[in-house]
Amino acid sequence: MSPREKRPQSRKTRASTRRRGAAKADRPEEIIWRREEPGARRAGLSRGQIGAAALAIADAEGFDALSMRRIARELDAGTMTLYHYVRNKDELLSLMWDAVIGELILPDEALSGDWRVALTRRARTTRETFKRHPWIFGAMSQPAQSGPNGLRQFEQSLEAVRKLQVPTRDRLELIGLVEDYVFGFTLREVLQQMYDDQGDPNMAESGIAFFESELATGEYPNSSKLFRGDLATGMQRVMESFSGKANDRRFERGLKALFDGFEANRPKPKKP
Fold first, then answer.
1. Which helix H or strand E contains 271, and what residues bound it?
2. Are 33 and 86 contacting, i.e. CB atoms less than 8 angstroms apart?
3. What letters, b where the CB count within 10 A reaches 16 and e where it falls short, cover 117-128?
4. 239 to each of 69, 235, 236, how far by Cα in Å?
C-alpha cells in the first residue's frame, strides 16, 4: 500500500472520530446563537431576515419546500451567500423555531396574578401560534438548537407558576401537562384541517360505504346509535363537534378540567 492510500478505519477509530465531531459541535463557537453574524456582505441581509423568509415559505408551501436555493431566490441573494449565515438546514430550522417561539412571548403583565389565568393565556397563545405554522409538527423531529426565545419562553412559564404553593417538581409537571395538552389538541386540529383541504370526495364515498357495511353486521351497537339515520349526515354531525366554535369550547373545557384536576390532587398545605 502506497503512502497516499488511506487504510480503512477501524471501529475504534471511527468511534473516536465521531466523539471528536460531537465535542466540536458542543463548543460555544459552533452554536449558531454564539457565533457573530458575518460582515455586511449584502446590505440588509441577516440571520433574522433569513429565518423570516424561511418561515414565510414554510407557512405558504410546507416545510418540504424549504431549501437554501429557494430562500435565496426569495431574498434575491446568492445561495452561497446564505451559507455564511446559516451552515445547514438544522441551523435554518433553529432560526425558524426560535422565531415561532418568539410569538409565544407574552407581555410581562400577563404573567402576574393568578396562575390559572397566566397559564390559560399561555395555552391559548401556543394553540393559535401553532395553527398559524402547521408545518411545525412535522419538523419537531428534526434537530434544532434551542435559542434565546426558547429560554425566555421557559422563564415566562416558570414565572406563571412562581406563586403556586407546591413543590418545584409539581410546578414543572403542571407546565409540562399544559404543553402536552395544547400540543395534542392542536395537532388534531391541524390534521383535520389538512384532511379537509386535501380530502378526496371519492375516498369519502368509499369510506362511507365501508362503514355502512360494517355497521350492518350489528357488531358496533354504540357506533350505530351515534350514526343513527343517514350515515353521511351522522358523520357530518360528529365531525362538526370537532371543528370551529365547537373546538374552541372543547379546548377551554379541557384546559379547565386539567387545572381542576391539578388543584384537586395537589398536596394540601400543612396546618400550623
1. none
2. no
3. ebbbebbebbbe
4. 41, 6, 5
Cell of 114: 393568578
Rounded Cα gap, residues 168 and 185, in angstroms: 26
The grid cell for 188 is 388534531
User: Which DSSP helix (H) or strand (E) runs through 213?
Assistant: helix 201-215
202/208 Cα distance (integer angstroms) = 10
- Whats the size of the chain, residue-wise? 272
Task: For residues 182 and 258, give the distance between their C-alpha atoms in angstroms, rounded to a whole number.
Answer: 11
Three cell numbers, residue 27: 463548543
Distance between CA atoms of 78 and 105, rounded to whole angstroms? 33
Q: What angle do CA 236, 239, 243 make, to 5 degrees?
A: 130
Per residue in 89-111, pLDDT (tens digit) is 889 999 999 999 999 999 988 88
Residue 57 Cα to chain centre, angstroms: 17
Instruction: Give tens-digit pLDDT for 201-251.
Output: 665 677 778 888 888 888 989 888 888 777 777 777 777 776 777 889 999
pTM of the model: 0.77
Dist. CA 221–CA 227, nearest whole Å: 10
- DSSP E strand stretches across the chain: none
Q: Of the candidates 171, 175, 67, which has an alpha carbon nearest to the alpha carbon of residue 126?
A: 175
